[in-house]
Design a protein that fits this description.
Order of helices and strands: EEHEHEH
Strand order of the largest sheet: 3-1-2-4
Helix content: 25-40%
Number of helices: 3
Radius of gyration: 17 Å
Number of strands: 4
Length: 97
């Protein structure tokens, strides 16, 4: 089964389901930091080493195994939609285009 949008530490202890615009860059940097003691030098979305990603073919079997493992901590983050919805509701209709 495919698991697009999954990032995981190299130790396979923490698995994160990426949600765009919901702190994914910050969380990716934290995952990298927990393994290496330093932040990734650059955009974590461009990382090809130091973190497992479903988009990297060599990581897919490891992620598939971790998804099923009770020993891997799994999490995701979402944004609170209320502030964005409220802003859109209070703007004049002409500003929504």
């Amino acid at each position: 089964m495919p698991y697009p949008g999954i990032w995981m530490t190299e130790s396979e202890q923490i698995l994160y389901r990426v949600v765009p615009k919901a702190a994914c860059s910050s969380i990716g940097q934290i995952l990298y930091y927990t393994e290496h003691g330093t932040f990734f030098d650059g955009d974590i979305h461009d990382a090809r080493h130091g973190i497992h990603k479903w988009a990297l073919e060599h990581s897919q079997p490891l992620i598939s195994r971790a998804v099923e493992s009770p020993d891997t901590y799994k999490f995701s983050c979402v944004r609170n939609p209320y502030p964005v919805s409220y802003t859109h509701l209070t703007l004049p209709t002409s500003d929504l285009v």
